[in-house]
Amino acid sequence: MNIPKNLFYTKDHEWARIEGNTAYIGITDYAQHSLGDITFVELPKIGEELKQSGHCATVESVKAASEVYAPLSGKVLSVNVELSAHPELINQSAYELGYFFSMQITNANEKAKLMDAASYERYVEGLTK
């Protein structure tokens, strides 16, 4: 399982790549693997205000539909339009081509509630035992 060291993670298996005041958001390799082949993604709207841990997207797969929660509070700056036509990018490249959206972070202190890669790896290992 791929868990990049430069990202932050939630217990709901979302990741955030923080670059200054901007965060790129997606679901983890563990999440996409658990869901199976992803067939549809509903993304937030540009300009939408998100709250940490609030619903921000929906992912549908051959197995189930799942809610996606915002790892941080902020305003959606852009969405990955490629996912509309090619949701399988999430399965193929969860941390790069399969990112969901970018957002302007409105509360940098919320980062303290996220896990680093080592903590997330231990968390996932606990789920698989």
Q: Key terms for this structure?
A:
alpha+beta, globular, 129 residues, 4 helices, three-stranded antiparallel sheet, 9 strands, six-stranded antiparallel sheet
Can you put this structure into words, describing what you see?
This protein is α+β, with helices and mostly antiparallel strands and 129 residues long. It contains 4 helices and 9 strands. Strands 1-2-3-9-8-5 form a 6-stranded antiparallel sheet. It has a 3-stranded antiparallel sheet with strand order 4-6-7, with no helix packed on it. A hairpin with a 3-residue loop joins strand 6 (55-61) and strand 7. The longest helix is centred in the last third of the chain and has 11 residues, at 117-127. The radius of gyration is 13 Å and the shape is globular.
Gist of the model:
20% of the residues lie in helices and 34% in strands. By secondary structure, it is α+β, with helices and mostly antiparallel strands.
